[in-house]
Amino acid sequence: MQLRVLSLLLFTAVLTGCFAEAEAPSAKQPPAQPIDVAAVLYTQYSPEYTFTTRLESPQQVELRPRVSGVIESVEFREGSHVKQGDLLFRIDSRPFAAEVARLEAELDRAKAALGQAQSEAQRAQRLQGRNAMSAEQAESRLSLASQRRAELASVQAAMKAARLNLEFTEVRAPIDGQVSNAFITAGNNVQAGQSVLTSLVATDRLYAYFDVDERTWNASFSDVKADGQTQARLTLAGSARAPQTGELDFIDNQINEQTGTLRVRAVFTAKDAPLRPGAFARIQLKATDSQPTVMVPDRAVGTDLKSRFVLVVNAENVLEYRPVELGRREGTLRVVEAGLEPGERIAANGPARVGPGMPITPRNVEIEAQSLTLAEPQPKAEPSA
């Protein structure tokens, strides 16, 4: 009897221990943590490239005098915008006016001499016709008339040059644009074609030349033509203004063999924009072809010693480790080149406070598409048998 009671007590203790072991794991099971979960963004994406440049004016002039002399006055406000033909400098015109007056008198003398020579030549022809003058004398008078005609033409040419020189004492703007300061002021002597009076740049349009490496051009811009249809955006260094919009109007005819780059130009209208020649700027250019692309929030990407990864939510709402290959960053989004498929769900805030193997309670959120054009989601490929 005692043996039977002892066996019953032992059996009861064993059963109690088994039930305790069975209930222990469930007591330690943590509750599922609620986290933000989003389906990966599947979008039609055109990568945007950035190039650096300095702006150039289509027309730049170093203003030099065409005649030598003394600057009489400066007729413009330094740094102002001027129109073609506006008076900028006056050079002392008195020596040139005196030369014009001298040549006018010389011109009158030459005209009178020519008239007399022509009259004598005509009379010589009449006398020779009546055999009243020798042929030799008649030819001499005809020759003298020709000399007087050449002298008159010479004086007329000198007069034209003298009047041009007198006109050149007024130095005028050759183009529309913005003028710099006066490099030489009143009272100073200047030399024709040598002294630089000021500089003038056209500012209504500005050029931005930049170099695109051969690989990038062939991959993203091979269909671009210099017809003004491809837009480019310009941002000035340190500027908080919205980018200026221009277009490509020039593509060089060959690739530079030494650098492996192609010279390209964008043109921007600068009348109402704070653009200046020589300014440092960044040019943004979108690729012509777009591809359906998977994108995720950049904060959803984690880093370990091996690779970059995201946490994928499976059908049982358990997080799985998934290594990914990343591409360019676009704002708050990151291009995923490999590792994710359209329609898959991820932990939107990344591996903060969660990790692989953890059960979760999903809080569904949407990824902001920003200005990207969404493509139709594609079904996930079925595994081959």
From TrEMBL:
Q: Which residues form the Multidrug resistance protein MdtA-like alpha-helical hairpin domain?
A: 101-169
Position of the signal peptide:
1-22
- Provide the protein's localization: Cell inner membrane
Single Gene Ontology MF annotation: transmembrane transporter activity
| Residue span(s) of domain Multidrug resistance protein MdtA-like barrel-sandwich hybrid | 60-195
Record-annotated Multidrug resistance protein MdtA-like C-terminal permuted SH3 domain positions: 294-347
Annotated Multidrug resistance protein MdtA-like beta-barrel domain ranges read: 224-288
Q: Name one GO biological process term.
A: response to antibiotic
Topology relative to the lipid bilayer, per the entry, is:
Lipid-anchor
Q: Which residues form a coiled coil?
A: 100-127
InterPro entries, sorted: MdtA-like_b-barrel, MdtA-like_BSH, MdtA-like_C, MdtA-like_HH, RND_pump_MFP
The uppermost taxa in this organism's lineage are: Bacteria, Pseudomonadati, Pseudomonadota, Gammaproteobacteria, Aeromonadales
- Taken from the record, one Pfam family name reads BSH_RND
* PANTHER family, per database record: ACRA/E-RELATED COMPONENT OF DRUG EFFLUX TRANSPORTER (PTHR30158), RESISTANCE-NODULATION-CELL DIVISION (RND) MULTIDRUG EFFLUX MEMBRANE FUSION PROTEIN MEXE (PTHR30158:SF26)
Question: Does the keyword Coiled coil belong to this entry?
Answer: yes
Descriptive protein name = Efflux transporter periplasmic adaptor subunit
